[in-house]
Amino acid sequence: MPEEQQLHGGLTNAGKVTRVGDTVRRPQSRTSASTHALLDHLERVGFDGSPRFLGIDEQGREMLSFIPGDAVVAPYEAWALTDEALISVAVLLRRYHEAVASFDATDHVWPQSLPSAYRGGLVTHNDPNLDNFIFSGGHAVALIDFDLACPGSAVWDVACAGRLWAPLRDERDVPQPLRGRSIGRLRTFVEAYGLPEPERARVSDAALSALDWCYRIVRDAIADGHQAFGRQWRAGDRMRAERTRRWIIAHRQHMQALLAESDACCHTRGNEVQ
Ligand SMILES: Nc1ncnc2c1ncn2[C@@H]1O[C@H](COP(=O)(O)OP(=O)(O)OP(=O)(O)O)[C@@H](O)[C@H]1O
Ligand SMILES: [Mg+2]
Known about the structure:
binds adenosine-5'-triphosphate; globular; five-stranded antiparallel sheet; Phosphorylase Kinase, domain 1
């Protein structure tokens, strides 16, 4: 029996995600069956940027394929903060959306729903945090941790990812090399994804909604007794979330104006994803 090696990066299942040989073992949630159907669909359509679902192990954990590479975890290495890394995340997110567009979500149960303005037929990832991407050679090669996936829309996922990767937050919470560059990087992200014009105008509002949505999940988990979230919340996440909220509101118009001027060259690529 190969040894179990603990994997680091996430908080929701901190200490419970392990590697066994070429597989990853993770606890299941009440909606894991839907996530497994989603991963099976991605495999069927030949998408290579997500783990394969391999079944349930003898302890009731989900088994996924282990993807070689590095997740982005603090303290961030220089390669993780490059525009090249940012663009690779946007391109991978777009490829994911194109692959998932043919997945029918209707007969599945999802862990939660998105704000009504952003709900749609596209099953979005919804948690494109830095540690939920695997990188190889400085480029994002896979998205992992689809536990929060549910029916959404492209603009929502672009706003979720753009907020975290730009990142859109108070300067004091931005890694030093990226200070003063957040809004420019958001534009780079949106252009690399190829979000069409009418949707670009919605990104800054969606980013604010995504922040509130994400922290509601954190607060609910804390109320349910999640220890690691509780510790982080008290240690500064709460104050950071409030600063982020104020920052997004203060810069909303600037973001909208810059995105409206975005390069028109990217609007014709790939299949349409809504
Ligand atoms: N399929 C995989 N291939 C390679 N590494 C993986 C894989 N799944 C997880 N990991 C590693 O394990 C870490 C934690 O995994 P995961 O994101 O599933 O945990 P989590 O606690 O559910 O995360 P979160 O707090 O984002 O919900 C990742 O950041 C990554 O480093
Ligand atoms: Mg994770």
